Amino acid sequence: MSLILVVEDDVSNRRLLVLFLEKNGYTVDAVDTAEAALNAMRATVPDLVLLDIRLPGINGLEMIAQMRADPRTAHIPVIGITASGISDDRELATAAGMNEFLRKPLNLNELHTLIRRYVA
Q1: At 11, which CATH number?
Q2: Does the N-terminal or the C-terminal CB of the chain have fewer CB atoms within 10 Å?
Q3: What single DSSP character describes residue 106?
Q4: What angle do CA 78, 17, 48 make, to 5 degrees?
Q5: What's this model's pTM, rounded to 2 decimal places?
Q6: 118 CA to centre of own chain
């Protein structure tokens, strides 16, 4: 069973993602900060990361840079998610090493299609 790490600071969004992923047969680890995510990945390397771009403390783009610099996590696919309306987010996310990028509110069918692209 594939492990997906959800990094989302909004409690409601995090719960929705966890429920959706578990319903679709994935094992889920969910945290609310990039710092917690980086610590979690030291213990267990996930198959995929769903990452909110706008996080308190270390933001999603900084987290990606740290992941890509670490040989243990450099290969992990990352799907970025954001509610931000800033048009540069997609370009910044791609430049940072994000594999995919979705805007909130999420289309769960689109999300599931992307997840299946990266996780068997």
Answers
A1: 3.40.50.2300
A2: C
A3: P
A4: 25
A5: 0.93
A6: 12
